[in-house]
Give the backbone structure.
Amino acid sequence: MPATTLDQLVSLCKRRGFVFPSSEIYGGLQGVFDWGPLGVELKNNIISSWWRTNVYERDDMEGLDAAILMNRLTWRYSGHEETFNDPLVDCRDCKSRWRADHIRGRCPNCGSTNLTEPRPFNMMFKTAVGPVADADSFAYLRPETAQGIFVNFGNVLATSSRKLPFGIAQVGKAFRNEINPRNFLFRVREFEQMEIEYFVMPGTEDEWHQRWLEDRLAWWESIGIPRARIKIYDVPPDELAHYSKRTFDLMYDYPTLGYEEVEGIASRTDYDLGSHSRDQETLNLTARANPNRDSTARLTYYDPESRRHIVPFVIEPSAGVGRCFLAVLAEAYDEQMVKAPPSERVRAVADALEAFLKSVGRNEKLASETRDALVERGQAILAGLPETMPQIETLLAMPGADQIDIGKKLRGQAQGPIDEYFRTVLHLKPHLAPIRVAVFPLKRNHEGLVAMARELRAAIQSGSSFRTVYDDTGAIGKLYRRQDEIGTPYCVTVDFQSLEDGTVTVRDRDTMQQVRIPASEVRAYVTGRG
Ligand code: GAP
């Protein structure tokens, strides 16, 4: 079953080092995160899968990696200086700041309705380029990667001799000074986008928009997000961005959050190339482009058939890497009861949980929302025991739980049965798993087993595009559980029979079944399975 709460994912990411708060030792920076050792592998695998599908497996795409810093004029003519705003309100009572469209007229911090009128807040980060901070050195950190593609359209066309339709793909950082970053990786101030600008003949854009919608859904399916878990939101005209003729938002059913945007697929007409072009009056633009006296180029395409220079229309599929990462984790997440724990141990955990919840209810130092959240979650776990037992770890990681002394007793009661009878497993597609193969010696103090396991690890790793690790830091059962929790599809054990006949066991993460095969065949075995 996929994750049911965002807290389960936050807790896993923290426990196993997928994601860390940025500059945590100095108190962190709101809305900014660092990728830990496993997080960077999963993130890179998501990006590689996107690049492979959209650049290598098609014959109508080129790649690009434009700089984050761009000439300020880019953002004037793209429309961002004028329109990339969120409506900001202040609470007059507690002085907190909110996005007006997120709070329905009431301060989420203190409940007051004494709010200022909404006013526009531009979300672009500003910086200065060079030693003197003046009007000439002023620059923005890009709020989307897309503009790097538009301003390079002429360069790519001239150097690649592409014919329409064709596209340019780019993955890179974007920065937005979000008023309220929240929900872990979902809304942050520094993030990565995977964007495509696909250039088509005017008049064919509706057909291509539909084709891209299908292609993108197929990719989401290939990374483990079933079609049924995504809703397509056909954005109504009054909600469309300034550049868009029509947009489909792909909405994933996130735990806790519900359906939220993971990717937008916009039909951007000739707005962008038109806005960045000179001599606009000669281009027969359909969009209300921004009048441009600064550009040195006409961003047009020479159509050999009509023998005319035209401004292509654009379809833009744009996905956030962090939101994709969260969706992949949520979908892969599973807490399984491997064997039913004895009833007396379940009873003991239930008693400790009840005592914990009573103590939470009595604790007047906790804010009432914190108390209610803990009690609500705890009651749900209590009602679902024994299957819900692993969620006690998440409960104890929730805000306020560390202030309940009896929480230690609950942890003590629950930890044993959780370790013994349950496993957390990430059913990640093998091509996304941070680690594809883990190799263990049956005994860590046996020279022969250790040497063979280390050699085998190196042999599997050599020349592979995935990661293989060696581990001997626990008993085999514990090592399996640790790898299950981070989604490693294959665990290979070198045992005494291996020393005699050169075979090893390969355990499958999802079925927990083992097969015995020659060590020399392991690499082909794990490579052939995705
Ligand atoms: N070039 C078009 C564009 O940037 P967008 O809908 O603003 O469109 C595209 O952003 C995607 O980028 C979103 O679907 C989302 O996945 C991701 N994204 C946007 N803002 C984000 C934020 N503050 N934190 C994390 N991801 C974000």
Observations:
- DSSP finds 18 helices and 23 strands in the chain.
